[in-house]
Amino acid sequence: MLVKILKGAGMVLGSLVLLLGIAYAVIARNITERVEKTYDFARESFPIPTDSLSMERGKHVALIKGCIECHGENMAGKVMIDEPPMGRLVATNLTRGKGGLPDDYAAEDWIRALRHGVGRNGRPLIFMPSHETTLLSQEDMAALIAYCRQLPPVDQAWAPIKLGPVVQVFSYLDKMPLLSVEKIDHHRALLTQADTSGGIAQGKYLAVSCSGCHQPNFKGGDGAAPGSPPVPDLTRSGHVGKWTQPQFIHTLRTGHTPEGRILKNEDMPWKMTAQYQEKELVALYKYFQSLP
Ligand code: HEC
Ligand code: HEC
């Protein structure tokens, strides 16, 4: 009797393992196909400024859009994760040093990457948030490109990206923004100029950078990855919605909340929000306060 039960249990377990194996194989194949797909978008170009005011604007955009959070302080790239079950995610060296962007990487290539989320070879950029950069105004995108193209060259080569099973499964379940090319409306015209009036409209434009973690409706939700803290609601109905404007600004500049909590930059990138101008933080506050 016991032997029979054990044999039965063994068979159930065996079939379960087999089923999981098949499911994983299907997922891995699906992700590989999507990563290796080639896209062909119409070439696009617009003038890239060279004046110092635009350079300064471009630097500001790079800071407030978190480029350095992933591409590193000097923009020479960074290993974001390198652990066996996750795999290796690496952000490109964006300078013209060895291991960086090739000498003939043109404005058109920058535009393709930031607007469509694909590299020069038409392959999807992996884990690069182009679904957010595509929402930049043409003016801001041009200034950002101008700034990036004059970065001092840094020689730094990185090992290639390798997707581990955890990243594959999370991406398959759409719990991780692996392929921004699939999320972008490629026919949408670029906004010419962003609102800078310091009100709700400017806040909405800036809040795109918060939407990836705080969700498009800014109501927050589960942590971005296993083990990371839940993401708070930023709207009027949430707990942040009860804060005064000075409290909101103080938190985003210092990582210290009015309740005395200290936010870790790895969870909530407050070093990025600390770079926002006062006017931009006020605009964000007004925008979140306008959401019920
Ligand atoms: C969440 C992390 C993250 C952020 C934030 C980020 N990037 Fe990236 N970026 C990546 C990764 C990872 C890659 C490598 C993609 C690949 O090789 O498939 C990449 C690739 C790129 C490329 C493509 C280079 C090439 O090979 O053609 C450009 C251009 C780029 N990033 C610019 C930017 C700029 C400008 C910003 C700021 C607005 C930015 N990135 C913000 C992660 C990020
Ligand atoms: C990479 C993901 C990520 C991005 C991008 C991000 N946040 Fe957060 N944010 C978090 C997480 C996670 C927490 C909670 C951290 C904790 O509890 O320790 C948080 C916490 C906060 C808090 C504190 C809330 C509280 O209850 O104490 C505020 C305010 C906030 N974020 C505002 C913003 C704004 C504004 C932006 C955009 C400019 C933004 N965040 C972008 C992940 C993110």
TrEMBL record:
Residues 53-152, 198-292 form the Cytochrome c domain. It comes from the Bacteria. It holds the Pfam family Cytochrom_C. The keyword Metal-binding applies. GO terms for molecular function: electron transfer activity; heme binding; metal ion binding. Keywords: Heme, Iron, Metal-binding. The keyword Metal-binding applies. Coiled coil: none annotated. This is Cytochrome c domain-containing protein. It comes from Siphonobacter curvatus.
